[in-house]
Specification:
This protein is of the alpha+beta class. Helices cover about 35% and strands about 15% of the residues. Helix 5 crosses helix 11 (about 335-350).
C-alpha cells in the first residue's frame, strides 16, 4: 500500500502535468486575441477602446518603428479671415477708371457693381441690356437649384413586360456611353453599360433571354434644335439636338449626331447583347406604357454637382438640359420655350427683377437672349445670401481667376493680388465677351459685378477680353471700402 508520501508525490506529478500547458495556452490566447482585434476590431467594438486609424484619427497614428519624423515649419496663411464691410462707390469708380473707356471694348458695354451684403448698386454705366452669351448659365443654374433642389438625380430606366422592353430617357445630361468612359469623370457618370448589365440580370431572373427594344425620349418636347439658334449650329458642331435620352451628349467620333436618342438605344442594345441577351431587330422609338414595370435604372449625379460642372467649364448642353428640367418642374413643359418661361418664373419667385430681359434658351447660345445687368446681379446676390443655402453651388461652381475652369488660363497679366479673389462666369460668342461674378477686395469686402460687351470688332476680341480681366482684377485688388 502506497505511503502518504507516495500518494502526495503522485498528486504533485499529476498537478504538474495539468498545469504545465497553461503558459502555452495563455500565449495562444494572446495571439488569437491579437488576430481577432486586428481583423475584427474587437477592442474597439467590445471594450470601447479607441483605436486610431488613418481614416478616423490620422493625427494619432504613430509612425513605423525606426522612422524619425521632424515637425516642418508652420505655413503662412494664404489669406487672413476678414469681415466684409461696406463698398465705397468712389473707390470702385477709381479702380475701374483706367479701363472703362478703352476703345477695344467696343461701343456697347454694360458695367455694374453691387454691394453683396445689401444689394445696393454702387456703380452702373453703359447699356441697359446686352447679349449675355454664357453668363446666361448663371440664371439657369440658380433656377435649377431652386426649383429642382441640389440633391435631385435624373434616372435613366428600362421598363417592360415579358420580352418587350423600353429604354426611357430621364434627362441625364452626362449619361456615358460605356462604363469605361464614365470611369474617373466628375461629376460621377451613370453609364449605359451598367444599365445593360442590370437589365440583363433582371431579365435572366425572369428567364427571359430574347427581347425587342424600344426607346422613349418623350420627356422633352418641342424641337431638338432651338429655332432661336443659327441653323448652322449642328453642321458646324456647335450644339446637338437637346434630348432626354443621349449618351456622351450626342457625340460620335468627335461630332454631334442628329439622332442622339437612337444612337443611345443602339449602344444599349449592343451592351445588352454583350450581357447575354438577344435583341431582335433594331431599336424602335416608342412611348413606354405607363403601367410598365421597371427592370433597372441608373441615376445621374445630383443637380448641385451638375450645376458646378456646367458653370466651371461652360457646358452648353448640360445647361440646356437643366433648363428643360426646370420647365418640366414648373409647368410640365420640357422644351426650350417651357424652360425659358420656367427660369423666369423661378427667378421672380426669388424676388429677382426680370423686367427688361428676354430669355430664349438656357445656355446663352441664342443671340436674341438679352439680359439686364440687374438680373445678373440679382442671381449672384441670391446665391450669396444666407437665406438661400440651396443655391450655394451656383457660387462654388464659378471658375476662380487664374486657377480653375474657363478662367484657369486667364488673369495671367494684371494685379497678382486678384488671383483667387475673383470668381466669375465667362461669356463668349463672336463679338461678345463677358464676365459676371464675385470679387473680394483686399479688405474682405464682397462685390457682385457684371462686365459685358456685345459689339466688339472681331480683331479686338482678345483685347476686349483682356480688358474685362483687368477690370475684374482691379475690383479684387482694390481697397474698395470707405
Amino acid at each position: 500500500m502506497p505511503t502518504r508520501e507516495q500518494r502526495h508525490a503522485g498528486r504533485t506529478r499529476r498537478t504538474r502535468r495539468w498545469t504545465s500547458w497553461i503558459p502555452e495556452a495563455l500565449v495562444a490566447l494572446v495571439v488569437v486575441a491579437a488576430i481577432g482585434n486586428a481583423e475584427l476590431d474587437l477592442g474597439h467594438r467590445w471594450l470601447g477602446l479607441d483605436r486610431a486609424t488613418p481614416g478616423t484619427d490620422p493625427a494619432r497614428v504613430l509612425p513605423p518603428e525606426g522612422l524619425d519624423l521632424t515637425a516642418g515649419p508652420a505655413a503662412a496663411p494664404v489669406a487672413l479671415p476678414q469681415a466684409p464691410g461696406r463698398i465705397d462707390p468712389a473707390a470702385v469708380r477709381k479702380a475701374l477708371a483706367p479701363y472703362v473707356a478703352d476703345p477695344d471694348l467696343g461701343k456697347h458695354v454694360s458695367i455694374a457693381v453691387s454691394e453683396v451684403a445689401t444689394g445696393k448698386i454702387v456703380l452702373r454705366r453703359g447699356a441697359s441690356a446686352v447679349t449675355p452669351a454664357s453668363t446666361m448659365k448663371l440664371l439657369t443654374s440658380v433656377a435649377a437649384l431652386e426649383k429642382l433642389g441640389p440633391m435631385t438625380r435624373f434616372s435613366t430606366r428600362v421598363v417592360g413586360a415579358g420580352n418587350r422592353i423600353v429604354l426611357v430617357g430621364g434627362g441625364d445630361p452626362f449619361l456615358a456611353g460605356s462604363t469605361k468612359r464614365a470611369r474617373g469623370q466628375y461629376p460621377a457618370r451613370a453609364d449605359i453599360g451598367t444599365l445593360a448589365r442590370r437589365t440583363a440580370a433582371a431579365l435572366k431572373a425572369q428567364q427571359v433571354s430574347k427581347v425587342t427594344l424600344g426607346y422613349d425620349d418623350s420627356l422633352f418636347s418641342g424641337p431638338g434644335l432651338n429655332p432661336r439658334w443659327p441653323a448652322t449650329y449642328l453642321p458646324e458642331n456647335v450644339a446637338p439636338p437637346i434630348s432626354a435620352l443621349w449618351i456622351d451628349q450626342g457625340v460620335v467620333d468627335g461630332r454631334y449626331v442628329a439622332n442622339p436618342a437612337e444612337v443611345a438605344a443602339n449602344a444599349f442594345a449592343t451592351a445588352l447583347r454583350r450581357s447575354g441577351i438577344t435583341v431582335v431587330g433594331a431599336p424602335r422609338q416608342r412611348t413606354a406604357p405607363a403601367a410598365a414595370a421597371e427592370l433597372a435604372k441608373v441615376e445621374s449625379a445630383p443637380v448641385g454637382e451638375i450645376v458646378q460642372q456646367t458653370l466651371a467649364v461652360s457646358d452648353n448642353n448640360a445647361a440646356e438640359v437643366l433648363s428643360h428640367q426646370v420647365g418640366l418642374a414648373v409647368s410640365g413643359d420640357g422644351s426650350f420655350l417651357g424652360g425659358a418661361a420656367g427660369v423666369v418664373e423661378v427667378l421672380q419667385g426669388l424676388k429677382i427683377d426680370t423686367a427688361g430681359s428676354r430669355i430664349y434658351d438656357g445656355s446663352g447660345l441664342s443671340r436674341q437672349t438679352l439680359l439686364t445687368p440687374g438680373i445678373l446681379l440679382g442671381v449672384l446676390q441670391a446665391a450669396a445670401s444666407t437665406e438661400h443655402p440651396e443655391l450655394r453651388e451656383a457660387l462654388t461652381g464659378l471658375p476662380v481667376a487664374g486657377f480653375t475652369g474657363s478662367l484657369q488660363s486667364r488673369f495671367d497679366k494684371g494685379p497678382a493680388d486678384a488671383l483667387g479673389r475673383v470668381r466669375a462666369k465667362t461669356g463668349t460668342l463672336t463679338g461678345v465677351r463677358g464676365l459676371a461674378g464675385l470679387a473680394t477686395d483686399l479688405d474682405g469686402n464682397l462685390m457682385a459685378f457684371v462686365l459685358i460687351t456685345d459689339r466688339v470688332p472681331v480683331e479686338d476680341q482678345l483685347a476686349a477680353q483682356h480688358d474685362l480681366d483687368l477690370m475684374a482684377g482691379a475690383l479684387g485688388s482694390c481697397h474698395c471700402g470707405p
